[in-house]
Amino acid sequence: MARIVMKFGGTSMAGIERIRHVAGLVKREAEAGNQVAVVVSAMAGETDRLIQFCREASSLYDPREYDVVVASGEQVTSGLLAITLQGMGVNARSYMGWQLPIRTTPAHSAALIDAIDADILEGVFSENGIAVIPGFQGVAADGSVSTLGRGGSDTSAVALAAAIKADRCDIYTDVDGVYTTDPRIVPGAKKLAAITYEEMLELASVGAKVLQTRSVGLAMREGVAVRVLSSFEDKPGTMVVGDDQIEDYQMERQLITGIAYDKNEARVTLTGLPDKPGSVASIFEALANANVNVDMIVQSVPRAGEPSDLTFTVPTAALAQSADVLEKLKEKVGFNEILTDTNVVKVSAVGVGMRSNAGIAAQMFKALADRGINILAITTSEIKVSVLIAEEYTELAVRVLHTTYGLDDNGETA
Amino acid sequence: MARIVMKFGGTSMAGIERIRHVAGLVKREAEAGNQVAVVVSAMAGETDRLIQFCREASSLYDPREYDVVVASGEQVTSGLLAITLQGMGVNARSYMGWQLPIRTTPAHSAALIDAIDADILEGVFSENGIAVIPGFQGVAADGSVSTLGRGGSDTSAVALAAAIKADRCDIYTDVDGVYTTDPRIVPGAKKLAAITYEEMLELASVGAKVLQTRSVGLAMREGVAVRVLSSFEDKPGTMVVGDDQIEDYQMERQLITGIAYDKNEARVTLTGLPDKPGSVASIFEALANANVNVDMIVQSVPRAGEPSDLTFTVPTAALAQSADVLEKLKEKVGFNEILTDTNVVKVSAVGVGMRSNAGIAAQMFKALADRGINILAITTSEIKVSVLIAEEYTELAVRVLHTTYGLDDNGETA
Predict the structure, then answer these.
(1) Distance from CA of A15 to the nearest CA of B (A)
(2) What's any one GO cellular component for it (chains A, B) (predicted)?
(3) To bridge A92 with a disulfide, which of A85, A195, A232, A303 should be the other Cys (CB 3.0-4.6 Å)?
(4) What is the pTM of this model?
(5) Which residue intervals of chain B bear CATH 3.30.2130.10?
């Protein structure tokens, strides 16, 4: 017998037919003798509909009331899944965030989970019952409804798994696992049997949006074993676990686990930056104060006393704001121009294996250079090498790197 | 300064534009110096949509989970109205049924309000705030969400008005008040400035569905002054008050306040009923046990020892079930046939004035007989005379009686 949290996303809950299918999956786990708690998202499209209502009601909507409105989507699907399970003869009941309770910080519309009371759930398990819990929502200390921000349902599921010391947190979604890269670009991309938290974080932040980044970070801190799998196809999925458990799933690790890409970065170049102490620092300080997340940074090496160029990337969504911030600094810092380019893509190779293996970056640069792909910027971390290139080379670069790192084999990795 | 509960129905809350209009009405009352609590329904059609989901999920849905699902409709509109009011610079906040709390019986999907805690609301009023409260919902003693059944939002509003000792409960709806009869049948029907609780109950139960019957009964018991008015037109509406207050609104009462009709009755006739003690009683007992509400009853006077015919009416919706119940009694009680007729209408004249005035019923019978309209059954109460006639005469009978009782004057009653 295992204790399992099962989480179903919006497409899995979109309509009664799909909810009935989900109920079948839940029933199967319960009949296998497992203790099951289920976390559900709102029906696909419903949260957007509710957010749109709030925006129309007032452009400066109160996040406290916004939470009251948008939390209703998960309330509906929780009740409907409980009803459906009962109709199949399964002893199920829903518990809202304020009923358990799921205690959060008071940061409405972007709350963090403080604690989840497991008492009610332990009672449900002891009576062989199944609890259905709305994701995304909780209750603040003042008794008001709170929500965790978009995609928060994954985080709800992982936090719940930690609270009840679940053996596993199964995240059912509309893809059947984590692949070595985007199968739309590389048809031979393989599904990974397992991946570490850190690799998943790097892959998620660079574009493989299977699991919400925040939930992966929480799973890593709490040591929750997460499985990503499809609610539409009966396939094994991908385990997301710690470095110490990864060997339970893979006899031998590849050096590189996957190739990711992210088109949501924009390049900014400041030309003619004077060679003065503190001028670069003042630029990044101003951007940080505006909550702009700067990623890749390249500075041309100036001859002493001569101006240089500074290039960096920001999220495309923050480009206009960044330009505003920089425009105000122009005179004070004394650079010439602000050049921007949104036709760029960040391509990354991610893998825990590269820690113990030099030459991964060099391999990447050579493979891209051989295809005449110009590298605009580079960043590296312990388990990731990323390059910024022109967007038109996205598919070519991903395919080349997928092959370069030996990920093109047939079948799934063992 | 007055303390007012304002309640808005589903058509008044159907979409952001209408909610914005509602917010304007609320703001006006607040700016006039009044203390205001607002009770809202779900958007028109939303509750039906949610109920349909529950039915599709399982034909035998758990009413506890049904309540979780359907209560979400009012949660959404409460939050949206609070947001809209805030956007207009009004200090507003929503409070769910479980937050106030509005305590109810545990009869899920048909709960009764036990008590409403006024503490939070008194705090809101003392800070010149406006509370927005979802109608239709509350919380049971075990902490589960409960709902009051269809149309329960009117009841929520009246109960809230009683709890906070409001001076008035304004029910905003899509009609602008209570009329002497259906204006679609009698274009000269007049809007009543005021009506007593009892008259309203009789008019509601016979077809003038402006206010939910249950809320009128509660208003009568608690002495809550209710005003029915349109949220779409800026007109005075109709006050619903006690006998002792009615004179504040009308110098002189008409004998008859209004003419109502109800097509949702079906006639049942049992022929050849043996003249045995207890046979009639056994029939009505069986129908009562099946929760069928028998209304008008006529028995032909038999010659001693000879069989007679028994005629009565039941709600059309309960006709099939009634026929089943009666079929089972046929042999035991020994009647011949069960004849049914759904092409009938109940037409009623209602008025507190008839208490002190004989001859109202006789006037009705003569007016109908003069037009050749055959009366199939009669019931009377202290303030109502009803007749059952063939449905094809509905409009003729309503017009004739409206004229007979002098309701055809121009303008509104004073």
Answers:
(1) 8
(2) cytosol
(3) A85
(4) 0.84
(5) 247-414
